[in-house]
DNA sequence: CTACATTCTAACCGCGCAGTTAGAATGGCT
DNA sequence: AGCCATTCTAACTGCGCGGTTAGAATGTAG
């Protein structure tokens, strides 16, 4: 069946993801992607169709990676503690040399506007929905909170997570730690 | 002294500011600016020098507008209450028809990367520094908090504010209200 | 009324971008 | 070995961007 691909899809998507994650969609050009991924435009377009297509695959890969951390919330039997641990794990994921990269989904949320690609919006919404669902369900099941309370706290934690994402790009580790501790003080 | 300008600078800066605020720096083209400001490229460049120059003037105008709200924190004699009120006032400032515009400074913070114009970075840093300073000083003076505590709480509130900025662009009013109430629960 | 500094109009420029394509290189088939 | 579908290389295209500029329009000062 003819020639074989000289790269592994997941490998090049991972490289693209890191570039998009750090630089954002707009500030990542195809030139940079070619260089970072080690393949050229033709290969990118024949495999992913478009820059958007590659971005979506990067989002999916990120969701997959973070999905592992989310599963750990579900595995715990104290939701509040597990979510707090998740916040700290996220910090480790975001951390680079010096300032953090933020949450790739959070960065995307901040970059997109009304006329963004619907597939991209969908990925972001799905992630937010899934995470909120886990927060809410675990608070309900593991900590026995009332439904109304659990929902409100899940909303609160979701927004706090968005803040942590942005903050991780400009704040010191001790400021971020202090932030997380304060978030959970009232719960 | 020759011909007079057919527009008032602050008027056109205000229009530019709203465009930058809603669409961000990158997604605002000079074409849009010409249309919205009602003057053409030549006038923009002769008055502001560059797109960056106009953006910086927009940031300054925004800081001036928000500065009024910050003064109200200083005028109060209960820092926590006044800061909470500031959060709600910000929501009104951000609100549009439907979802909010966020904080213009916060949006800028999320958009810029390492190689952004230094003048822009400076505006953002100045704003953050000023706001943190007011939070910290007021908590110290009006609520008699210890210096270490006041600083930690000021950091916490600063990051919460960043979160509120992003969240105001994607969350409902009741979610945002719930968020603010939770932020201040622990203080 | 004239002179002239300044603003405005509108056409223009070079650049980097996302996306395309012709043709060479490759390697699993029979 | 040789076919041929597929991948790869590299040059190309059209477009919108930020930014520039010549020349017409305008208003004040003498």
Structural commentary:
The structure is a homodimer of 187-residue chains. By secondary structure, the first copy, chain A, is mostly helical. Chain A has a single domain (9-185), classed as Tetracycline Repressor, domain 2 (Orthogonal Bundle), CATH 1.10.357.10. Chain A is 74% helix and 0% strand. The first copy, chain A, contains 9 helices and no strands. The longest helix of chain A is centred in the middle third of the chain and has 25 residues, at 51-75. The radius of gyration of chain A is 18 Å and the shape is elongated. The mean pLDDT of chain A is 95. The structure holds a DNA duplex (30 and 30 nucleotides).
CATH homology superfamily name of chain A: Tetracycline Repressor, domain 2
Helix content of chain A: over 70%
Number of domains of chain A: 1
Tell me the radius of gyration of chain A.
Answer: 18 Å
Which fold name fills CATH's third level, the topology of chain A? Tetracycline Repressor, domain 2
Strand tally of chain A: 0
Q: How large is the share of residues in beta strands of chain A?
A: under 5%
**Assembly state (oligomeric):** homodimer
User: What would you call the shape of chain A?
Assistant: elongated
Largest inter-chain contact set: A-B, 32 and 32 residues
Order of helices and strands of chain A: HHHHHHHHH
The CATH architecture term of chain A is Orthogonal Bundle
Distance between the first and last residues' Cα of chain A: 60 Å
Instruction: Identify low-pLDDT runs of chain A.
Output: none
Give the structural class of chain A: mainly alpha
Mean pLDDT of chain A: 95
Q: What characterizes the major β-sheet of chain A?
A: none
